[in-house]
Automatic annotation (TrEMBL):
It comes from Massilia forsythiae. Keywords: Hydrolase. SUPFAM superfamilies: Isochorismatase-like hydrolases. This is Cysteine hydrolase. One of its GO terms (molecular function) is hydrolase activity. PANTHER family: ISOCHORISMATASE HYDROLASE (PTHR43540:SF1), PEROXYUREIDOACRYLATE/UREIDOACRYLATE AMIDOHYDROLASE-RELATED (PTHR43540). The keyword Amino-acid biosynthesis does not apply.
Length: 187
């Protein structure tokens, strides 16, 4: 996939609470480094960047407004001119104006990174694909947390992550790795 100025980098929920060990056992320990590499590359090319932040409706949530957990991680603080979207459901297109913001700018290609693969990333990528955007989900710049499946069988973070990527690939998005995306930027 050639990456052009018409491709936006969508960084999902890289907030302080996602780095908290209390969030659970996760995979892809280098995901933050991959996301930072992509963010640096996007900034260098001056391509559009969208920072998505989850703001919970529950005052007890780590994502509640005013909680330290709801703030962006320092490495992913938006710069002036970078778009910020706040959401209070997993899907960053619901009640956020993001679809309109992208269309007004003629942006049809999206590169999605962040957390968690099986929740906000998957929900957002499904909607983006259904809306007609050309979506790439970066496998090594996303991560998930361990959780039991519907039958109660414990699933590792890798299993949860890989199943979410499988749910997306070929139907709603194309799954790629960060090296492939960076190589396209260098072409």
């Amino acid at each position: 996939m050639p990456i052009s100025p018409a491709a936006a980098l969508i960084i999902i929920d890289m907030q302080n609470c996602m780095a908290n060990p209390a969030a659970g056992q996760r995979n892809n320990p280098d995901a933050e480094r991959r996301i930072a590499d992509l963010l640096t590359a996007w900034r260098r090319t001056e391509a559009p960047i969208v920072h998505v932040r989850h703001i919970s409706r529950s005052p007890r949530s780590l994502f509640a407004p005013g909680q330290r957990g709801a703030a962006f991680q320092d490495a992913f603080l938006p710069l002036d001119g970078e778009h910020v979207v706040e959401k209070n459901v997993p899907d960053c297109f619901i009640h956020s104006g993001l679809e309109r913001w992208l269309h007004v700018r003629g942006i049809g290609r999206l590169v999605m990174v962040g957390v968690s693969t099986n929740n906000s990333v998957e929900a957002s990528a499904r909607t983006a694909g259904n809306l007609g955007f050309e979506v790439r989900v970066v496998s090594d710049a996303t991560f998930a947390f361990a959780k039991p499946d519907y039958a109660g069988t414990p699933r590792s973070a890798d299993e949860v992550h890989l199943m979410a990527l499988a749910n997306l690939d070929g139907e709603y998005a194309t799954v790629v790795d960060s090296a492939a995306v960076l190589a396209c930027l260098d072409d």
